[in-house]
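Practice problem 4.
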């Protein structure tokens, strides 16, 4: 999968916990802008598409999603990743890919001393064009309606911001996250989230 460079692509980093995630998913489905896929399939399974909030599993498959803006392009493709024989009983998995897909990732608590950002992210037309000669399997980025992708991404980010009850720096804080931050006395924001202890050497 393409690595994401937050400095080069539109994104929103926000604080959420498990209790907040269903409300984020409702914002996705209620918008009627997206088809929703898991970013990575379970071992020996194909990538699943989810049609309602209730279909999204509670495990890791439901915490890293790829959103296809309806009508924005040729749609997602599935890249097969074969496992090294003998490492496990599983043989392969699939990764959901596409130039104009929007990533929706849950960060959440890391132990009781850190809350990591959840985020949305996607390519820009310029970045996709720069990578096109390297990733032929994804086709021509010009086949995507980048105006539609950017518009839907912006609407989703605004919907998530409306769910927030606080903000730390530029990062919206959803209700469950606010409770976790207060209970764990998280005060130091660095790296990919907020921590109970200051950054070593900071």
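Answer key:
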């Amino acid at each position: 999968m393409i690595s994401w460079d937050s400095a080069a692509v539109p994104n929103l980093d926000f604080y959420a916990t498990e209790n907040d995630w269903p409300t984020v998913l409702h914002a996705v489905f209620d918008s009627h802008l997206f088809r929703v896929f898991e970013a990575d399939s379970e071992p020996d399974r194909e990538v699943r598409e989810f049609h309602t909030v209730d279909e999204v599993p509670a495990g890791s498959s439901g915490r890293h999603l790829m959103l296809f803006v309806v009508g924005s392009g040729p749609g997602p493709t599935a890249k097969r990743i074969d496992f090294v024989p003998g490492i496990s009983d599983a043989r392969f998995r699939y990764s959901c890919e596409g130039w104009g897909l929007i990533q929706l990732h849950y960060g959440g608590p890391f132990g009781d001393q850190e809350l990591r950002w959840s985020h949305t992210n996607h390519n820009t037309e310029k970045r996709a064009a720069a990578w096109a000669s390297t990733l032929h399997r994804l086709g021509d980025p010009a086949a995507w309606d980048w105006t539609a992708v950017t518009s839907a991404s912006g609407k989703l980010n605004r919907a998530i911001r409306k769910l927030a009850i606080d903000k730390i720096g530029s990062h919206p804080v959803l209700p469950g996250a606010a409770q976790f931050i207060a209970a764990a006395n998280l005060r130091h924001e660095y790296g990919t989230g907020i921590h109970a202890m200051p950054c070593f050497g900071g």
